[in-house]
Amino acid sequence: MSDKHDKSKADKTANSREARLKAALKANMAKRKAQARARAATAPKEKKE
Q: Which domain holds residue 22?
């Protein structure tokens, strides 16, 4: 009986970890995109000749 309980607990832990990492990655990507947009908006445009 305890084996089934341990497996479900491990699955739940893995799922919560995966969800937490997914949320952190999404927030990090949003932050990086915002930084890139800010840099692009303030950087002077180079002229091609």
A: 1-42
